[in-house]
Amino acid sequence: MTTQIQSQPGQSDPTTPSDKLDKNVLMVAGVVVLGAIMSILDITVVSVALNTFQEEFDATAAEVAWTMTGYTLALASVIPLTGWAADRFGTKRLYLLAVLLFTAGSVLCATATSLELLVLYRVLQGLGGGMLMPLGMTILTRAAGPERIGRVMAVLGIPMLLGPIFGPIVGGALIDAVSWHWIFLINLPIGIAAIVYAWIVLPQDSVEPSETFDWLGMLLLSPGLAAFLYGVSSIPEHGTALAREVMVPMVLGIVLIIAFVPWALARRNLHPLVELRLFKNKDMTVAVLAMMLFAIAFFGASLLFPLYFIQVRGEDALGAGLLLAPQGVGAMITMPIAGILADKIGPGKIVLVGITVITIGMAMFTQIDAATSYTYMLGALFVMGLGMGATMMPIMTAALATLTAHNVARGSTLLNITQQVAASIGTALFSVILTNEIKSSASAQAFLAARPADGDPSVLAGLAERFGLPVDQFTALVAQGQVALADSFATVFVVATVLVACCLIPAAFLPRKKVASVDPAAMMGH
Questions:
Q1: If both were cysteines, with which of 120, 326, 387, 491 could 382 make a disulfide (CB 3.0 to 4.6 Å apart)?
Q2: Which residues, including other chains, have CB under 8 Å from residue 300's CB and lie 6 or more apart?
Q3: Which of 451, 475, 480 is CA-nearest to residue 315?
Q4: Where are the beta strands (DSSP E) in 90-207?
Q5: What is the rounded CA–CA span in Å between residue 359 and residue 350?
Q6: What angle, rounded to 10 degrees, do the helices at 50-57 and 66-89 form?
Q7: 384 vs 381: CA distance, rounded Å
Q8: C-alpha distances in angstroms, 440 versus 280, 434, 446?
Q9: Other CB atoms within 10 A of residue 266 CB
């Protein structure tokens, strides 16, 4: 016997298949997308303000990096709590709280008078932002039912894919036109609109009797994830995973996470913080593996594109953001089509095609040099965008389509933890590979060092002395540097292409027919 996700007041009946999303589901989707736009856009908007923070607070690059790290650690710490809290307090109440926390944190960030206060307020933002994505996935999945998960995941995928692309554009424009405070203040009207919209549109919660809270699980998993991600995020700064500052938090985090596993699977632990028993569902397991590998490859490689435009071609953050726009356009074209097809024929075939297309686009970047035409690169980004729109959200569809109503919150929590950890690993991995490639080329290092000098003879003389070379030899080295730097990027794009292609392996095991809901007792092994 199969068990369908139960509809709630104000939601469509999921047991009746439909080829389109009705008005109620679209209105709920609007709420979720608004919240997702705030949290995802904020991550990349802040990334372009790091230099501004250094000047404003007279701080080092490592110190201002905590405005990103603090947000990420808060995000990772609160995600595991979301599944339990959604069951305990209801998705509507928790969503309103998450938006309120994020908005309040944003306003406080704009008032920060010191770097310490800014980091503290970014942590508050992260506590709200960490709940928005898993909650949004839960709300949308319950609203649409298993027959239309592909379509609603496509809707949610828009901010997930476009945020990293348009964040630098918005951030750069606001900093140039007004001040850094506005990258946070812009969240105030969006947050107010999201709270009012959610209050009106989301159906009232019908909360079941509360499950016991897994205190031991929280003490193991939340600090474990935070410590592990802190270690991983420190790798680019130290250039190796073997540095003491990296190894200690990473090992501590891994030990805590490993200790959580037997506790989560213990028979007496009826309601673990994160439901690892969901891995008894084959589709869920394969989808999580595919998501992990894809997030490492995609989010890690995404770091390379703006850096190439900025470091090799001399674009500013705003220009680099605009040049990434074709990627977003490509994703917007295929995402809704992929969502419909995933519901009709299953996500497996869609994801295989999507990853193949991304691999082709990424392979085009292995051929770049210092003078590659922008037309060629924008075309490659567009091709990758087409593939992206057919990959990430269908993978999530495969994971969530077979879950019962109760397990949707737990499943979306598991997916979001996977994505956050994998994205951090990918970013660190590609940062280190690129840094080591550049370190292996003296001319690439000379080019990067000389660029801010803008030909100033006195500055060039100082740099030449630092490199231990006569000025004319140093100048000749700089002249070769742009080509060498572009070659470094091309080499790293080879690694990215191979990693993306490896995603085809788990993708081959995703469902290749319409996903049917499963019996909850079978899924949980009862």
A1: 326
A2: 423, 425, 426, 427, 428, 429, 430, 496, 499
A3: 451
A4: none
A5: 14
A6: 110
A7: 5
A8: 46, 10, 12
A9: 11
Domain boundaries, the chain: 1-204, 216-273, 277-526
Output the CA torsion 337→343→348→353 (10° steps).
-10
In whole angstroms, give the CA distance from residue 164 to residue 401: 26
For residue 201, give both structure tokens. Answer: 């549109």
Q: Do the two domains 1-204 and 277-526 of this chain adopt the same fold?
A: yes
**CATH for the stretch 277-526:** 1.20.1250.20
pLDDT at 22 exceeding the cut of 80: no
At the fourth CATH level, which superfamily is domain 1-204?
Answer: MFS general substrate transporter like domains (1.20.1250.20)
In the prediction, which pLDDT does 524 show?
A: 40
Cα–Cα distance for residue pair 106/122, rounded to 1 Å? 8
pTM summary value: 0.78
Burial of residue 391 (CB within 10 Å: 0-12, 13-18, 19+) is: buried
In the 8-state DSSP scheme, what is residue 316? -
Let me know the angle formed at the C-alpha of 185 by 179 and 189, rounded to the nearest 5 degrees. 140
Out of 70-84, 212-226, 288-302, 449-463, pick the least confident.
Answer: 449-463
Residue with tokens 């000389």: 450
**What pLDDT digit, counting tens, does each position of 375-405 carry?**
999 999 999 999 988 888 888 888 777 777 6
pLDDT 10s digits, 401-448? 777 766 777 787 788 888 888 888 888 888 888 888 888 888 888 888
Looking at 366-456, list the stretches that DSSP marks H as alpha helix, in order from N- to C-terminal side.
374-388, 392-400, 405-439, 442-450
Query: Which sign does the torsion angle of CA 443, 482, 357, 390 carry?
Result: positive
What number of CA atoms fall less than 13 Å from residue 57's CA on the CB side? 24
| 403's tokens | 């879950």
Unique residue bearing structure tokens 């969240």: 187
Q: What digits encode the pLDDT tens for the residues 345-364? A: 888 899 999 999 999 999 99
